[in-house]
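Hello again,

I reread your note about wanting to compare the complex against the isolated chains. To keep things tidy I'm splitting this into two emails, and this first one only covers the full assembly. Below are the input lines as submitted, including protein chains and any nucleic acid or small-molecule components. They are followed by the predicted structure of everything together. The single-chain runs will come separately.
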Amino acid sequence: MNIMKSEIGMMVVFTIVILTMPLWLAPIGAGYPDLLQKFAIFGLFAIGYNILFGLTGYLSFGHAAFLGIGSYAAVWSFKLLTMNVLPAILFGVVCSGIFAFCIGYVSLRRSGIYFSILTLAFAQMSYNLAYSVLTPITNGETGLQLTINDPRILDAAVTSATGLPSTTLFGLSMSGYSGFYFCAVVLIIGFFIALRISRSPFGLVLKGIKSNQTRMKYTGFNTRPYMITAFVISGMYAGLAGSLMAVTDPLAGAERMQWTASGEVVLMTILGGAGTLVGPVLGAGLIKYFENIFSAFNDKSLHELFSFLPEILENGVVAIIRPFVGEGWHLMLGLLFMLIIIFLPGGVMKGIDRIKTKFGSKSEKPAEQSE
Amino acid sequence: MSVEDTVLHIADVHKSFGGLHALSDIDLSVQKGTTHAIIGPNGAGKSTLLNVCIGRLIPDRGAVVFDGKELTGKSPHEINQAGVARVFQTPEIFTDLTVMDNVIVPILSKKDGSYKFNPMQNLAHRKDARDQAMELIEDVGLHPDDHAGSLSRGDKRRLELAMCLSQHPKLLLLDEPTAGMSRHDTNSTIELLKKIKERGMTKVVIEHDMHVVFSLADKISVLAEGKIIAEGTPEEVKANPVVQEAYLGG
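Full-complex prediction:
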C-alpha cells in the first residue's frame, strides 16, 4: 500500500507493468505489437485528456482534432525533413500545442455545456478543413502518405532509391516490437509528468477549479490562464499520441479527427476513472482490447463458437449476438459503457477502491454501505 | 480618527437594478483594526454593498477605495490579491478536497500570486504552506484529513473562515457568519471572531443576529432602503430613535 503512495514506487511498478506487457498480455491474445502500440498510444491520449477533464472537470469534445494535427505534423516531418521519429514527435507536439492554445483561448470563455459544444464545433471544423478545404496540406480523402519523391532534406545522403523508407530512431526501425517499446517509453515519461502535475501546487489549483470556481476567484486566483494551460498541456499530449500513430504507421487521415474519436477518449477516461492516475490508461487498454476482440468476430467464427448447441438454438444465439460484434462492435461498447456509468459511476478504479475498502473493513467492523 | 486610518472608503456609491435603487449615495469609512457591522432589514442592500466591495457588482456611480487604491471595476482575484477576503453566507469551500488542501489553496494564492506555473514542484515539499495550514486548522478545531464535503454546516463555516484567515487579509468581509447556526456554534464563532480582532484585522460584518452584532462591533452602520440612516457605536445606535423606529421595532 505504501509503495503505491510514493512517487518512485509508483513509477517502478508502472514501468515494469508497461514494459512486460508483451509477456502478460500474450495468454489473452493481445501480445502482438500492433495492438500493444495502440494500448500505449491511446493510453497516452487518455492520460493527457485526464489532465483537463479529470483535474479541472472541463469536458472537451474536440480532442481528436489535436490527435489529427499531431499525425499530420509528424507525417510532414517525415516527408520534408527526415525519417527520424524524434523531430516528428517534437513537431507534432508543438503544432498541436499552438492549435490547442488558439482553440482553448476561445472555448474557455464559456464553461460547462457551452464549453463542450465550442470544442466540438472546433473539432468538426478541423475535420472538415482536413477532409476537403485544406487538401493541398492534408491530401483530403486519401490521407497524407509518404512518397518516394519526398524531399527529406536531412536524409538525402542516406536514402536509397528502393521503395518507401520506414520510420527510424537513429537507424532502429520503428515497426513491430521496437515501435511498441518506443511508444511505451514515451507513455512512461508521459505518465511521470502527469503524476508530477497532479501532485504539484499547479495540480491542486486545477482541482480547486473543478471543485469550486467561485471560491478560486475570490481566493485570488486568475482561473482563466490556469485553464488555458491545462487545455494546452492536454492538447499537446493528444498531439504526441497522434504523432506516435504516424511513427508506427506513417500516414494521416482526416477520420482521426472525427467526433467519434473525441468521444472515444472521453469514454476511455470515464471507463477507467476520471481524475485517477492509472484509470485512463486502464480505460484505453480495455476499450482497445474489446474493440480488437469483438470486431474480429464474423458469422463463421460465431457459428464455431456456439457449435455445441443444437442447430436451431445455435442460429438463434448467433442472430442475437451478431449485431453486437464485427462491424457492430460499437453497440457492445455502448452497452459496456452504460453498465459502467449506471453501476460504477467512478469507473473501474473506483470499483477497485470499493472492493479494497470492503475487504479492508471486514476485519474491524461489518462493511459500511456508505453510498 | 485621521484619514490615514481609513482602510476601506465607500464613496457616494450608487447602484440600481432596473427602477429599484438598491444603494443610493452610500458613504462609508471603515477604520483600521475595527469591526464594523452593517445591519438593516431584509432587502436593505447589505449584500449588494458587500458585492460591490469584492468586485461581484460594479456600481453605477461612486468608488470603492481600499488601502489607498481604487477597487471599482477590478476583477475578484485582483481585489483578493490586494488584501480583501470574504466569508460567504453559504460557505464556499472545496467540498471534493480534504480540509488540509482547502486551507493550502488560499495560502498558495497568497504566496505564489494569481497565476504560477509550477507543475513539477511536489506539493508535499511545500513545508511553508503545510505548517501554516496545520496551525490554522488546529486553531479552528478541525482535522486536516477530513473530507470537507462531509463536515457539518458549522464546521464548514469554520473551515471557510480558516481559509480566509490563512491569507492574512487586511480586510475581512463576513456575510452573516452565524446564519443557520445553533446557539452553541454561534457563541464559539463569536469567540473565534474576537480572537481575530486581537490580531488587528479589520472586519466588516453583515449580521441579522443582534446578539452577535452587539458583542462584536466597534461601530455600526444601519442600512434601510439603500440608504445609511444611522451610524455610531453600538450604544449610540441602540439609543437612536430613528433606528428604533425603522429596524429595532421601537
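For quick reference: The first helix of chain B runs from residue 46 to 53.

B.
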